[in-house]
Design brief:
The protein has 416 residues and is α/β, with parallel strands linked by helices. It folds into 2 domains: 175 residues, 3-Layer(aba) Sandwich (Rossmann fold), CATH 3.40.50.1950; 196 residues, CoaB-like (Rossmann fold). The chain contains 14 helices and 23 strands. The strands form 6 sheets. The protein has a 9-stranded mixed beta sheet, with helices on both faces. Strands 4-3-2-5-6-7 form a 6-stranded parallel beta sheet, sandwiched between helices. Helix 5 crosses helix 8. The longest helix is centred in the C-terminal third of the chain and has 18 residues. The chain binds ligand PMT. Ligand PMT binds next to helix 10, helix 12 and strand 18.
Length: 416
């Protein structure tokens, strides 16, 4: 059994616009980096008057992005990717000018274009002279940004660099850092939840060189583990032998046989969510040999005695401290829905994701695409043919809805 390491660091796109408070953003980068956060920075022309690209780049340990029209920047990481790869965009300091551009959808430089193209949550920390801050135009713009769902960190009152006193100071880096941390925790719907996922085949040895296995590639199970992790769950993936790399930031335990998979699952309970996507061998060889079986002259057949493996899904479903949501898969060549419903009842899980194996449109095993049907105790829902990543996203959205509808304390708070 081998293990690899856990927990994905968040990724933040920090936009530094023109203002003396830009120096505080250097400290903000340092604080974020200390927690392992990935920080990429866009520095506006104004921002670059106050802090240098070199210091930003040294602290963030990444290239600094400054120019919408830079062939180099766009080829390394274009403005769309910059926003897509971040969990959160933070504009600090946000000048009155950049705020006005955000409100009106003006996209005339890298920062404003990235903000307009963004599909991520945005935190804005305005910093400006008190007259500029209290001006009705700025206050109107702030109200509109709030209406658009942008989170505003109110500026504090104090003496400004220009010598005037009043509201408009950007809070200290630590305060902005704390807002970001709280925001990141709330943003991920599965934060605080623990998920266990099985994936891939199991190999049941016949002798030291041969085994009984199946065609599962692990693509579906690994995609589900990755999506659960992306939505904030702390995920343990228990994988049979696959050629896929261990997913980044997920604790991955590699096993070979059904027995080892069962033990690894039990050792990693309690959990809030269990997804059994592995194609676990139903049988193992009872008369497994310690030495390689040799061909025997005059004996063209070989008898292998099979014995049933433990049913991991059934065991988990019936434990007293079972996860709140137990999901199994059913891979069938025919009569898919009937078998899926029978499995739901027999094993005692909450949902079965049924997929028909072996059709030209849906070979399932090893393929990048899948067509599944969600079978619960109350509904049957056909999902369209989609990539396994999309199936994983749809399943995880269903999981999030289900947990929201039956809110319970997370397994970390329950006594095991
Ligand atoms: O890995 P891929 O190439 O991406 O393919 C994905 C997949 C086809 C493997 C996946 O989508 C899938 O259907 N997985 C379950 C396959 C399977 O073994 O189905 P089953 O009908 O034999 O088992 C039903 C359920 O019981 C499954 O959740 C299985 O994990 C579980 N089981 C089965 C036997 C056993 N001894 N223990 C179990 O826990």
């Amino acid at each position: 059994m081998t293990e690899s390491s856990p927990s994905s660091p968040p990724s933040i796109l920090l936009i530094i616009s023109g203002g003396i408070a830009a120096y505080k953003s250097l400290e903000l980068i340092r604080l974020l980096k200390k927690t392992g956060t990935t920080v990429r920075v866009i520095l506006t022309k104004g921002g670059a008057q106050f802090v240098t690209p070199l210091s930003v780049s040294a602290l963030s340990e990444h290239a600094v992005y400054t120019d919408l029209w830079s062939l180099k920047d766009e080829s390394e990481m274009g403005h769309i990717r910059l926003s897509r790869e971040a969990d959160l965009i933070v504009v600090a300091p946000a000048s009155a000018n950049l705020i006005a551009k955000m409100v009106h959808g003006i996209a005339d430089d890298l920062a404003s274009t990235t903000l307009l193209a963004s599909n991520k949550p945005i935190i804005v920390s305005p910093a400006m002279n008190p007259e500029m801050w209290t001006k009705s135009s700025t206050q109107r713009n702030i109200a509109l940004l709030k209406e658009d769902g942008v989170h505003i960190i109110s500026p504090t009152i104090g003496e400004m660099a220009c010598g005037e006193t009043g509201p408009g100071r950007m809070p200290e880096a630590l305060e902005i850092f704390n807002v970001i941390q709280n925001f990141l925790i709330k943003e991920k719907p599965l934060s605080g939840k623990k998920a266990l996922v099985t994936s891939g085949p199991t190999f049941e040895p016949i002798d030291p060189v041969r085994y009984i296995g199946n065609r599962s590639s692990g693509k579906q199970g690994h995609a589900i583990a990755a999506e659960l992790e992306r939505q904030g769950a702390s995920v343990t993936l228990i994988s049979g032998p696959v050629s896929l790399p261990d997913p980044a930031h997920i604790k991955t335990i590699r096993v070979e046989t059904a027995e080892c998979m069962k033990n690894a699952v039990l050792e990693n309970l309690p959990a809030d969510i269990f997804v059994g996507a592995a194609a676990v061998a139903d049988w193992r060889i009872e008369n497994q040999t310690a030495q390689k079986i040799k061909k025997r002259t005059g004996s063209p057949t070989l008898d292998l005695k099979l014995t049933e493996n433990p049913d991991i899904l059934q065991i988990i479903s019936n434990l007293p401290n079972r996860p709140q949501l137990v999901i199994g898969f059913a891979a069938e060549t025919h009569d898919v829905l009937n078998f899926a419903r029978a499995k739901l009842l027999k094993k005692g899980c909450d949902w079965i994701i049924a997929n028909q194996v072996g059709t030209d449109e849906n070979p399932v095993f090893g393929s990048d695409r899948n067509q599944v049907t969600l079978v619960t105790h109350t509904l049957t829902e056909d999902w369209p043919v989609a990539s396994k990543t999309t199936v994983a996203k749809m399943l995880v959205q269903k999981i999030i809805e289900e947990l929201r509808n039956h809110e319970q304390p997370s397994c970390h708070n329950r006594s095991a």
